[in-house]
Amino acid sequence: MRDLKGDNASWESYDQLLIATGASPISPDVPGADATDIFGVSTLESGLNIHRRLDKGGIKRAVVVGGGYIGLEMAEALVMRGLEVALIDRSAQVMGTLDEEMGALVSQALRDVGVTLYLAEELVEFETASGKVTGVVTDKRTLPADIVILGLGARPNTALAGAAGIPLGEKGSIRVNERMETGIAGIWAAGDCAESFHLVSRKPFYVALGTVANRQGRVAGINLGGGYATFPGVMGTAVTKICHVEVARTGLQEKEIEALGLEHVSAVIKSRTKAGYFPGAGEITVKVLAEKGSGRLLGGQIVGKEGSAKRIDTLATALHAGFTVEEMINLDLGYAPPFSPVWDPVVIAAREVAKKL
Amino acid sequence: MRDLKGDNASWESYDQLLIATGASPISPDVPGADATDIFGVSTLESGLNIHRRLDKGGIKRAVVVGGGYIGLEMAEALVMRGLEVALIDRSAQVMGTLDEEMGALVSQALRDVGVTLYLAEELVEFETASGKVTGVVTDKRTLPADIVILGLGARPNTALAGAAGIPLGEKGSIRVNERMETGIAGIWAAGDCAESFHLVSRKPFYVALGTVANRQGRVAGINLGGGYATFPGVMGTAVTKICHVEVARTGLQEKEIEALGLEHVSAVIKSRTKAGYFPGAGEITVKVLAEKGSGRLLGGQIVGKEGSAKRIDTLATALHAGFTVEEMINLDLGYAPPFSPVWDPVVIAAREVAKKL
Lengths: 357, 357
Known about the structure:
Two copies of one chain form a homodimer.
Chain A: E1 17-19, E2 23-25, E3 38-40, H1 44-56, E4 61-65, H2 69-80, E5 84-89, H3 100-112, E6 116-119, E7 123-129, E8 132-138, E9 142-144, E10 147-150, E11 154-156, H4 159-163, E12 187-189, E13 196-198, E14 203-205, H5 210-224, E15 238-242, E16 245-251, H6 254-259, E17 264-272, E18 283-291, E19 297-304, H7 312-321, H8 325-329, H9 345-354
Parallel strand pairs in A: 1-12, 3-10, 4-5, 4-10, 5-6
Antiparallel strand pairs in A: 2-11, 7-8, 8-9, 13-14, 15-16, 16-19, 17-18, 18-19
C-alpha cells in the first residue's frame, strides 16, 4: 500500500480482497492528445472540469470524438448550452450497439438538434497552439475546435491485477465467476474493472455501466461478508437520449448474432407512444430480433419520443424469461390511451417477427 | 335475425358463429335512475353525449357514482373542465383493484385536484325535478347535482347466449376455452361478453378491457378462419391516471391472494421516476406481493408521477415468466439518470420482499 499523500509504503495482509479499480476513459494515441481543452468524461470531477471550462468563456466550437453514449450525451449537453457542435466517429454510424437502420434514426435525431456528424472518419491528430487544442484533424478534413470531448469508451484498470497474476478476460477485464470471485481464491472483483457474462450469447462480456457495477458490487459484498449471492450476468440493456429522442437496446444486435453463427429474423415497426388520437402521442420505432425457426427472442432496439426508452424493460425481462416472440404476443401489458396503443409497440414488433419465422 | 330498421325477421344458417355482444354499463336499480342528465359511459357515442350536454351549459356540479377506472377518468375530465366534482363509492376506497394503502394514494391524488370524495356511502336514490336529475342521495347525505356520471362497472351482454343454452361463467360472461370456443362446438365468443382466465390464480376471470377484447378477437378470428391460436389468459394488468398521477396494477391483490388460501409477503417502497438529482424526478410508490416461502411473484401495484405506470409491464412480464422476487433482482433493466434510479423502483420493491420471505 502506498500513501498517495506521502512517500510511505507498507504491507497490509488480507483475508478477503476486493478489487474495485474501475475503468479509465480511452485516450487516443495521436499527436496533440495531451493539449489543454481536450477532456475525457468519466467521473463527477471530470464533468465539473468541462463545466468550469465552459463557464470561463471563449468556447464556441466543440468537437466530440466518438458516437457512443458518452459522446451523444455530451453532444446534447453542449448543443443545449448553445455551442456549435461537430461529432466524429470512425464507424459509418453513431451508437454502434444498434443495428444500422436504428442507428440512422439516432443520427437523424442528432442532426435535428443541430449536431454536425462526420461519420466513417478517422481521427488523425489534434491541432494545437501554445499547448491548447485548436482543431481536430481527420483523414478527410480539419475541424476547428475550441474544446474537444473524448467519448472513445473505457478500458478496465487492471494492469496491477494482471501483473499480480490474476486471470484477465474480455477487453482486459478481470475474469470472475458468478459470485464475483477471481481466478485466485479470496480475491474478488466488481464494477468497471470486472468481467460480466452475457445471458443471451452465454459468453463472457465486458460492459462499463453504472447499473452493472452496482449490482456486481452488491453480490461481491454479500459473498465477501460470508453470505451467498450470484450475479448471473447481463442482457446488454442500455438507454440514453438526445434531447427529445429516447434510445434503448437490449440483447444481441445483428452483428453479434452473426458472430455466434445463429440465423435470425427481425422486424422494424413504427407505432405511437400513446393511442394515436391522444394528445402528445409521439412516434416510436421498435426493432425485435429472434432466432429463425425457434422464435427465441434475441434482442430489441427502440428509438422514439418521450415514453419510448423504458419499454426496453419488457424486452429485457422477456429475454431473461427465454420467451419466444409468439409467447410475447400473449403478454398482458398495461393499456390505456395516455400510455400506449392497444397493442404495445414492443408486442407489435414481436408479432411481426413471429409472422416471418 | 331481426332487421333493426324494420319489422323483418329471418333465419340465417351458419358454419361458425361468433358472439361479440360486448358489455353494458351497470345502471343502479334505485328511484330516479332514468332521469335525464344521468349518463353511463361505454361507447364513443355515450362519451359524446356527455360532451354535448356540458357544451349546452348550465352544469356546475357533477357527481360521479363509482370509483373505478371510468369513474376516476370521468372525475379527472370534469375537473379539467372546471366543474365542481364529487365522487361517491360504497367501498372505503377508490380503485378496489388496489390494496388499501395504494388506493389511499389514489384518493389523495383525487383530492389534490379538487374532487370531493364520499367513501363507504351507499347510493339510495336520485332526486329529480321535471324528469331531470337534481341530486344524489346516499345513506349519509344528499349531494346537489346538475349532472351524474355512472361508473359502476359493466355487465356482459349474454342474455341471448344464456337463453340459447350456451354455458356461462364468471359474472355471467360466456365461458370459452383457450381458443375462444364456447361450450357449443362451432360457436365462439370474444370481447367484453366473453370470459378470460387469470394466469396467476389459474381460475376463470372476467374483465372488460379493450386490450383483452382486442386480443381475444384476434384469436377467435384466426380459429374461425381455420387457423390455430390460443388466448392463454390475463394477468389483470391495468393502468390509468388522474391528472399527473399514474396508477397501475397487475396480478393478484391481497384480498385475491387470501381468497386463494395462499400466504404472502409484500413490501411498499418509495423511490423516484428518474435519478433523484435529475430535473423532473417524481415520486413513485411500488408495492410487490409474493408467495411466502417460495418467493413467487404474485402481483404489483404502482402509484406515481409521470413515467410510473408503464413500469407495471416489467412486473406483468415477470409474472408471465413465473419469476420469484429473487430472480427479479437480477433483471438487467434500462438505467440512465433521465429514466430511472440505478435500481429500478420495481426491482427495489422486489428486493425488499425478498428480504422478508
